[in-house]
Amino acid sequence: MPQKRLPLPSSKRASNRGRRLPMNTKRALTEIFAVSNAVRYAAIYHDGKLVSRMRKGASHASPAESDKYEELVVNPALLTLVKQRGNIGCGGARFLVVRYGNFYQLVIDLPTGHVSVCFELTANPLEHADAIARICA
């Protein structure tokens, strides 16, 4: 009797059938840094895995351990709060921007996590939100 084939998880299915392929996070980070010279740092938390990159020479950079916990705890919590509020009469929420003392941080919700991009204070993160969302789609 032939063995019954189980369907592949959605992340392993062929894209020509309209299903999601796994994100190439390293390529996505490279593309995010190409969006603007004002990008200082980018991280993608996707399917339970975190990858990040810092621009060399970024002034007033946060410690790597601090960034890790921000991506694993703070940003998911902020997105949850903002999305829940957005779903109550606001038409939803796609992203949030935090203005820290040394940089802006753009956090975009993804179906399997989030992308976080820090910009120099001279930049406007809203000008780049759609391009970054498309890179991670």
Taking the sheet with the most strands, its summary is:
5 strands, antiparallel
* CATH architecture group name: 2-Layer Sandwich
Q: Which class in CATH terms?
A: Alpha Beta
CATH superfamily: Dynein light chain 2a, cytoplasmic
Low-confidence stretches: 1-19
What is the 3D shape?
Answer: globular
Helix percentage: 25-40%
- Would you give the CATH topology? Beta-Lactamase
Structural class by helix and strand composition? alpha+beta
**Strand numbers in spatial order across the main sheet:** 2-1-5-4-3
**Distinct helical segment count:** 3
**Integer count of domains:** 1
The topology string of helices and strands comes to HEEHEEEH
Proportion in β-strands = 15-25%
> CA-to-CA gap between the ends?
41 Å
Count the beta strands: 5
